[in-house]
Design goal:
This protein is α+β, with helices and mostly antiparallel strands and about 1050 residues long. Helices cover about 45% and strands about 15% of the residues. Strand 2 and strand 3 form a beta hairpin.
C-alpha cells in the first residue's frame, strides 16, 4: 500500500460457472427452452385443429401461444415458469397454520392438537362429531423428510436393486456369495433395527409436546450449550460483542480484516453469522428509575424523575434499537469417529472451536460472551428470535414457569423433568397461509434473498454494516461455506476450458460475450487466488424483515430494496417460500437447498473477510444515565461510568470549541446523576450564572465566591474528615499529620498568588504557617485539632489575616505580607473569613466567575480544595466533581505555580477512583490545555479519563486531538462538522457518534441558546399575565 490511509477494496468475483443465455444475454437458456416447448404444445394443436381460416388461426395463435411463450421466456419473480409452478404447487400443498388453534378448546394431551391446512379445516368442520377421530401426533407431518436420516436410510435400502449373479451352474462359490450377501443384509437390518430402537426409545422418553410448534421445530434438544438437531447434527451458538468498525482508521480496519482472515483459515467449514435486531429492552433501566424515584423525598427531584421516566419511554418506543451478533457453527465429524463416541467428541470439538474463535476474534477487538449457563443462554437466544413480542414483556424464566404449570394442569407431573427444550421458546403459532409473508407471535415476517448475481464485484471492508444498521426489525443471516480446495481447482480449470470455447462462438457485440468474459475473468482470478494459499467459499445472504402490521412490513421491504439498489445490489423476494426461508433463517446452518443454490456467490478468503459483520457497537449499560442516541445504529447510549467491570475509572474529559455545547452536556450529565442520588459538585470559573437555573430547580446549593458575595471559604481551614468507613474497611491505620498535609496544599495556593516566590521565601512561608497554627493551639499532633470546649469539633481555625500579622513582623516576609494584604484588608477580604457554607447538599455549584485576573486562578484552587476534602470522606459513596474550563487553573501563573497546580489536578484524576468518585473536566482552549508544561498535564488528564466526549472542534484543534486520541480521518471529519448537540464518545477502544437528548423540562433548565432562552422568557411572562388575569 502506498498510502496507509487508503481504504482497501475487496473482490467478490462473479460465479465462474456461466449458466448460458440466448438473444444477446436477454433470456436464460432454460426460459427459452421452456417457452419453445410451451408454445409448441399449445400452438400446434390450436393451429391444426381449429376449423377456421389461416388468418383466424394466426390471430388465435397470437392470443394463446404467444402470451404463454412470452411468460415462459421472461419468467416469474426471477424464476423459470416450471420452477415457479413447482414452488407455487408446493406452497399450496404445505399451506397451513402450525400451532394451537385459538378457536378450538384445548382438551386432552398434546397429541390431540393437530396442524391443519385450510382444506383440512373445511373437511374437518363438515364431518359429524362422532366420526372425528384424532390420531396421535408423531411430529413427522410437520417436519421436512430430509431431516430424518433413518427414514432416508430405510427408503434407500428398499429401492436398492438386488445384485444379479453371473451366469453359470450353481456351486460352492455361488453359495458363498449368496451367504455373504445375506450376512451383509442381516448386518444392515440389525443396524437399522438398532437405530429404530434407539429412535423409538428417545421418542418414548420424550413426552408429547403441548405446543405443536415445539414439535415442528427441527431441534431435538439443547444440552451442554449445544443444539441437537433432528437431522443428527450438533450446532453451537456464541454471542460476539461488536466494535465500531466504520470509525476505525484504514490501518486499524486492515489489521482487523487480516485477523479475521486468520480466523477463517482455521474456522469450521460452515459458518453462519446472525444479526438480531429489535426494539431496545429498556425495562430494567425504567425499573431502576422507578425504584430511585420511590426513595426521593424532594418534590422537585421527584418531578425530574417523572419527566425523565416519560422521556426515556418516549425515546425508547420511537428510536431505541438494539442488536445482538451471533456466530454459529456445527460439529464436523471425522470419518473414523464411532457413532457411540460422536456426542462426546462433538462436545469436546465445539468447546475447542469456541476457544479458538475467542482467541482469534479478540485480535479483531471482539469478545466472545461466555454465559454462566450455556443452555439457558441458547434457549434465551431462540426465545428472543422466535417470540419477539412475548420476550419483550415476559422473560424466559417466567415462560418456563408457565410451561411447567401447563404440564401440571394436564396431569403430566411425571413428565416435567423431560419437557422438550423447544416448549420453552416455541411460538404459539406459525401462519404459512400467506404467499408474501408469514406470521409468528403476532408479527409479520418477510424474507429477502440476495441472488448470486446481485452482489457488487468490488466492496470495502465491513460493507455489510449498511444492511446491519438499516433499522428496527432488520435481521441479517450470512452463510459462509468453505469448499474442498482440490475439487474447486479442478472444477475451475474445467469451466475455464468450457468458457474459452464458448467465447469463440459469441459475438462481442452482445451481452453473451460479456457474461462469458466475466466468468472467464472470475475463473482466472479464483485460480490465481487458490494458487496463493487462499480458500474458496460460497456466500449466501438472507435478510429477514419484521413488522407489527402488514402495511409497515411492505414499507420496510420497499425501503430495504431501495437501499440495496442504491448500492448497486439486486434482491429477490421469497414469495411462496416463506416456510423454507423461515427454516433457513434459524441458527442451525441449514439453508434450504434451492434458496442456497439461488443465492450462492463464490469468493476467496479476502472477499469472505470483507463480510466482517460485527460492526455495530452499542454502549448501553443497565444502571447508568442516558446520554442520547447512537447516530449510526439508533441504539440508546446509557453509560454507567461507575461500573468498574466495564470502565477502568469513572473520569471523563469533555473537549469542544466555544458554543459546541460543553455546558449543556455537563449539566445534562449532572442532572441525571443527581436523579440517581449521586452528590454533584460543579466548579464554574466562567459564566457561572448558566448553572444557577438548574441548581435552583433541583433544590441545590449555589455558592458564589467573589469579593461582593457573603459566601466565604477559609482556605486555611483544616476540615474534619470522617474516617469511620476507612477504618471499617481497612482497620486502624497510620494517622498522618493533617497540619502537614494542609500546609502542603497551602504552598500551591501561595504559588498561584505569588508566582515569583523564591525558594528562601517558601521556607520562610512554611515557618510562618506553622507559627500561625501554633498560635491557635494546633500542632502536628492530630489530637491538638480537637476543641476542648466542644467535644467532637475542631478548634477555631486561623484565617489569612492571622498569617498576615505574622508575615509583616519580619522584614524578610514583608513582601509576601504586602501581596497578601489585598485578601485581608483589600477588596478581596472575603478570603480572610471563616467558612460559612457547606457541601452537604447533593447538588452544589461553586461559581467563581466573578473573580478576575490572578484571583480567578486562586479562587478556583480554593473551591477545588474545598470540594476535594468533601470527596475523600466516604470511599463507598459515588460522587462526581465537574471542573469547567480546567485550563484556567493551569494558566496565568509562573512555572512553579503551573507545576504545583497541575500536580494537584492530576492527583485528583489519579486518586478519586480510590474514593469512589469521578472527575469530569471540560475545556475549550485546547491549545493552552495541551501546551502547558509541554502537554504533560493535558495529556495526563486525558490519559486518566477512561471516557472522552469530543464536541465540535476547529481544524487545528481537531488535528491535535487526533494525534492524542488516535482518531481516524473519518472521525475527525465528523468532529469538524458536528452540529450543536452532537458529539463523539470514546471509551474502551470504541468510538460512538452520539446525538445528545434532553427532555423539554431538562432543556428549559440547562439551555444556553439565546433564542431558546427568549422563548422561555416569553412563555413565563405569558403564564404570569394569565395568573394575574385569573386573580382579578
Amino acid at each position: 500500500m502506498s498510502n496507509q490511509n487508503d481504504r482497501d477494496t475487496y473482490i467478490i468475483p462473479p460465479n465462474f460457472v456461466e449458466t448460458g443465455t440466448f438473444f444477446g444475454g436477454m433470456f436464460k437458456a432454460r426460459n427459452v427452452i421452456e417457452a419453445g416447448i410451451l408454445a409448441a404444445v399449445v400452438g400446434v394443436p390450436v393451429f391444426i385443429c381449429l376449423p377456421f381460416g389461416l388468418t383466424a388461426r394466426i390471430i388465435v395463435l397470437c392470443l394463446t401461444a404467444m402470451p404463454l411463450g412470452l411468460v415462459a421466456l421472461i419468467g416469474i419473480a426471477g424464476e423459470s415458469l416450471s420452477s415457479f409452478l413447482f414452488i407455487f404447487l408446493k406452497y399450496l400443498k404445505n399451506r397451513r397454520i402450525v400451532g394451537i388453534e385459538e378457536s378450538e378448546p384445548d382438551t386432552g394431551r398434546a397429541g390431540n392438537t393437530h396442524v391443519f391446512s385450510k382444506k383440512q379445516k373445511k373437511e374437518r368442520s363438515r364431518r359429524p362429531t362422532k366420526l372425528r377421530r384424532k390420531k396421535p401426533r408423531t411430529g413427522k407431518e410437520d417436519f421436512p423428510a430430509e431431516f430424518d436420516e433413518v427414514k432416508v436410510y430405510e427408503i434407500k435400502q428398499k429401492l436398492r436393486p438386488a445384485k444379479q449373479s453371473k451366469k453359470g451352474k450353481p456351486g460352492a462359490k455361488r453359495q458363498e456369495k449368496k451367504s455373504g450377501t445375506t450376512k451383509r443384509q442381516n448386518r444392515e437390518r440389525e443396524r437399522t433395527s438398532q437405530r429404530q430402537t434407539h429412535s423409538s426409545r428417545q421418542q418414548a422418553q420424550k413426552p408429547a409436546c403441548l405446543n405443536p410448534v415445539a414439535d415442528y421445530l427441527p431441534i431435538e434438544k439443547i444440552e451442554n450449550g449445544i443444539i441437537y438437531t433432528k437431522d443428527h447434527r450438533f450446532v453451537k451458538v456464541v454471542e460476539i460483542v461488536p466494535i465500531n468498525f466504520l470509525l476505525r482508521s484504514a490501518r486499524e480496519q486492515r489489521s482487523i480484516i487480516y485477523s479475521f482472515i486468520s480466523y477463517l483459515k482455521i474456522s469450521p467449514v460452515k459458518l453462519q453469522f446472525k444479526v438480531l435486531t429489535r426494539r431496545a429492552d429498556i425495562g430494567r433501566h425504567l425499573d431502576t428509575v422507578r425504584q430511585e424515584m420511590s426513595r426521593k423525598t424532594n418534590e422537585q427531584c421527584r418531578l425530574m424523575q417523572e419527566d425523565y421516566l416519560q422521556f426515556v419511554q418516549q425515546i425508547g418506543s420511537r428510536e431505541a434499537v438494539t442488536r445482538r451478533f451471533f456466530l454459529i457453527f456445527e460439529y464436523e465429524p471425522w470419518s473414523n469417529t464411532r457413532r457411540t463416541d460422536e456426542e462426546s467428541e462433538a462436545i469436546s470439538s465445539l468447546q475447542g472451536a469456541v476457544h479458538t474463535a475467542s482467541n482469534y476474534l479478540r485480535q479483531c477487538g471482539n469478545d466472545v460472551v461466555i454465559p454462566e449457563n450455556e443452555d439457558e443462554f441458547t434457549m434465551d437466544m431462540l426465545y428472543n428470535l422466535l417470540c419477539r413480542n412475548e420476550s419483550a414483556v415476559k422473560p424466559l424464566p417466567e415462560r418456563i414457569r408457565e410451561t411447567i404449570s401447563q404440564y401440571r394442569k394436564k396431569g403430566l407431573e411425571n413428565e416435567i423433568d423431560r419437557i422438550p427444550a423447544t416448549e420453552f421458546f416455541a411460538p404459539k403459532q406459525i401462519d404459512y397461509t400467506h404467499s408474501r409473508y408469514i406470521c409468528i407471535d403476532g408479527l409479520y415476517y418477510a424474507y429477502l434473498l440476495i441472488p448470486s448475481d446481485g452482489y457488487k464485484s468490488q466492496v470495502p471492508a465491513g460493507w455489510l454494516s449498511l444492511i446491519v444498521n438499516a433499522g428496527d426489525g432488520i435481521d441479517v443471516d450470512i452463510f459462509l461455506t468453505r469448499q474442498p480446495k482440490e475439487q474447486i481447482i479442478q472444477k475451475v480449470g474445467q469451466q475455464l476450458r468450457i468458457n474459452r470455447s464458448k467465447i469463440k462462438d459469441a459475438s462481442d457485440t452482445n451481452t453473451d460475450f460479456d457474461d462469458i468474459d466475466g466468468a472467464i475473468r472470475s475463473g482466472y482470478f479464483l485460480k490465481e487466488g487458490l494458487a496463493n494459499n487462499e480458500d474458496f467459499y460460497y456466500l449466501n445472504l438472507m435478510i429477514t424483515i419484521t413488522a407489527s402490521t402488514e402495511d409497515d412490513l411492505e414499507w420496510k421491504v420497499s425501503e430495504m430494496k431501495k437501499l440495496l439498489l442504491s448500492q448497486d445490489m439486486n434482491v429477490c423476494n421469497c414469495h411462496f417460500r416463506g416456510e423454507q426461508a423461515f427454516l433457513s433463517s434459524l441458527p442451525l446452518i441449514a439453508p434450504e437447498k434451492k434458496l442456497y443454490e439461488r443465492s450462492k456467490r463464490n469468493l476467496l478468503t479476502g472477499g469472505a473477510a470483507s463480510c466482517y459483520p460485527f460492526t455495530s457497537y452499542e454502549m448501553c449499560d443497565d444502571n447508568g444515565i442516558l446520554l442520547g442516541v447512537n447516530k449510526y445504529n439508533s441504539s440508546l447510549i446509557i453509560v454507567d461510568i461507575f461500573n468498574s467491570a466495564v470502565y477502568k475509572n469513572a473520569n471523563m474529559a469533555i473537549l469542544g470549541t466555544s458554543g459546541a455545547g460543553k455546558t449543556f452536556t455537563m449539566q445534562l450529565m449532572a442532572l441525571r446523576m443527581r436523579r440517581k442520588g449521586i452528590p454533584i459538585f460543579i466548579i464554574a470559573p466562567l459564566k457561572g450564572h448558566e448553572f444557577h437555573r438548574a441548581c435552583a430547580n433541583v433544590g441545590g446549593e449555589f455558592i458564589q465566591i467573589s469579593p461582593a458575595s457573603p459566601h466565604c471559604i477559609n482556605v486555611m481551614e483544616i476540615r474534619r474528615v470522617d474516617h469511620t468507613v476507612s477504618e471499617l474497611l481497612d482497620g486502624p491505620g497510620i494517622h498522618l499529620s493533617e497540619l502537614a498535609a494542609k500546609i502542603q496544599r497551602l504552598h500551591i495556593f501561595f504559588s498561584l498568588l505569588i508566582p515569583d516566590m523564591s525558594h528562601e521565601e517558601r521556607q520562610l512561608l512554611d515557618e510562618a504557617l506553622i507559627r500561625t497554627y501554633n498560635v491557635k493551639g494546633i500542632t502536628h499532633d492530630n489530637g491538638s485539632l480537637e476543641d476542648p470546649n466542644l467535644p467532637g469539633a475542631y478548634r477555631e481555625m486561623p484565617v489569612l489575616g492571622d498569617l498576615y500579622e505574622i508575615l509583616k513582623q519580619s522584614p524578610d516576609t514583608l513582601r509576601m505580607a504586602h501581596i497578601l494584604n489585598r485578601l485581608v484588608n483589600g477588596s478581596a477580604r472575603t478570603f480572610s473569613q471563616q467558612t460559612n457554607v457547606s457541601l452537604h447538599n447533593q447538588y452544589t455549584v461553586l461559581d467563581i466567575s466573578s473573580l478576575t485576573g490572578d484571583l480567578l486562578t486562586v479562587g478556583m484552587f480554593v473551591a477545588l480544595d474545598f470540594v476535594w476534602d468533601r470527596a475523600k470522606e466516604d470511599r463507598t459513596e459515588e460522587k462526581t466533581i465537574f471542573i469547567d474550563e480546567c485550563w484556567q487553573l493551569l494558566s496565568g501563573v509562573g512555572a512553579t505555580g503551573t507545576r504545583l497546580a497541575g500536580d494537584f489536578v492530576l492527583e485528583i484524576f489519579k486518586t478519586i477512583r480510590g474514593y469512589g468518585g469521578s472527575a469530569v473536566c471540560a475545556s475549550q482552549d485546547l491549545n493552552d490545555f495541551f501546551n502547558l508544561d509541554e502537554g504533560r498535564f493535558g495529556k495526563g488528564i486525558i490519559n486518566n479519563s477512561k471516557t472522552k466526549i469530543i464536541l465540535n472542534l476547529e481544524d487545528d484543534e481537531a488535528m491535535r486531538v487526533q494525534d492524542t486520541l488516535r482518531l481516524s480521518d473519518a472521525e475527525i471529519m465528523e468532529i469538524i462538522h458536528f452540529e450543536r448537540g452532537n458529539g463523539l464518545i470514546s471509551t474502551n477502544n470504541n468510538n460512538v457518534m452520539v446525538e445528545f437528548k434532553a427532555s423539554p423540562l431538562e432543556k428549559d433548565l440547562i439551555t444556553t441558546d439565546r433564542r431558546e432562552l427568549k422563548n422561555i422568557v416569553n412563555r413565563l411572562r405569558q403564564q404570569d399575565s394569565q395568573a394575574n388575569a385569573g386573580q382579578e
